[in-house]
Design a protein that fits this description.
mainly alpha
Amino acid sequence: MKALVHRAKNFLRSEDGPTATEYAVMLALIIIVALAAITLLGEKVNTIFGNVQTALPDGT
């Protein structure tokens, strides 16, 4: 248990801790932007395909 606490203290003291946190925040922001873009594009593509489907004949 002492080794775990010692490793945690070293991690927090070193420069890697803040860098890892910054990367985690940047990754979270990129994921949020990507999900928003996919959602918006998905709705537009769905609308376009719906319009194409209604414009095509039934095939009967």
